[in-house]
Amino acid sequence: MAAHYINTIAEGLKQYDNSLHSNQYYNDLAWKGLYKISDGETNSHILTDAWNTLTTTEQNRIKNTIKDEHTYGNKNCK
User: Fold this and answer.
1) Does the N terminus or the C terminus of the chain have fewer Cβ atoms within 10 A?
2) What are residue 64's DSSP bridge partners?
3) Which domain of life is it from (predicted)?
């Protein structure tokens, strides 16, 4: 289900941000609420099937993009 929403969310972010960044940037940010879900019983999180199909390199890039956006705001940070 998460994979279904990535492009839609990314496109919305891109429009809201006036396309200031790459498509990859918006796709990465779209994963923010979709790569893990609560198990409903504890504070544990379950990684989504869509997330698990990504390579470790892709997962790390996405996490770093999300972390940089949270830390530095709307900037291209390295």
Assistant:
1) C
2) none
3) Bacteria
CA distance 63 to 10: 15
Q: In the numeric block, which tokens belong to residue 42? A: 């504890």
Mean pLDDT throughout 57-64?
Answer: 93
Instruction: Dig out the tokens for 7 from the structure.
Output: 């492009």
Q: How confident is residue 77, by pLDDT bands cut at 50, 70 and 90? A: very low
Burial status of residue 54 (CB atoms within 10 A of its CB: 0-12, 13-18, 19 or more):
middle
Tokens encoding 54: 């990504």
| Tokens of residue 17, six digits | 């941000």
In whole angstroms, give the CA distance from residue 2 to residue 24: 17
Q: Residue 44 gets which letter from DSSP?
A: -
